[in-house]
Design goal:
This protein has about 100 residues and is mostly helical. It contains three helices and no strands.
């Protein structure tokens, strides 16, 4: 939102949105900054467009977590049946394919 020209502070922009801080890897930050400069845009405008496009994209499929298996006691787990962090991730989110 921009203040009307006849307002004494017409040069002041009023921010209409949420201000936040994000942490990006240095490499990603440099690429974002370079792209914004190449396109003559602000990083804010470029990030806004990229996030909107990503959220609107149907190609992003959010995986629903699968229920954890019921583990019955009585014997030690056989090799390959151990509940390691990798096995839990595979059960919850699949093999990554």
């Amino acid at each position: 939102m921009i203040a009307p020209a006849d307002h004494p502070y017409s040069h002041i922009r009023i921010f209409d949105g949420m201000k936040t801080t994000i942490e990006l890897p240095d490499e990603l930050f440099r690429r974002l900054k370079m792209r914004a400069a190449e396109e003559g845009r602000t990083m804010k405008d470029l990030l806004t467009e990229l996030v909107r496009g990503s959220l609107a994209s149907k190609s992003i499929r959010w995986k629903k977590a699968k229920p954890l298996p019921i583990i019955k006691g009585g014997r030690p787990a056989k090799r390959g049946e151990e509940m390691t962090p990798d096995r839990v991730a595979e059960i919850l989110w699949g093999s990554g394919e």
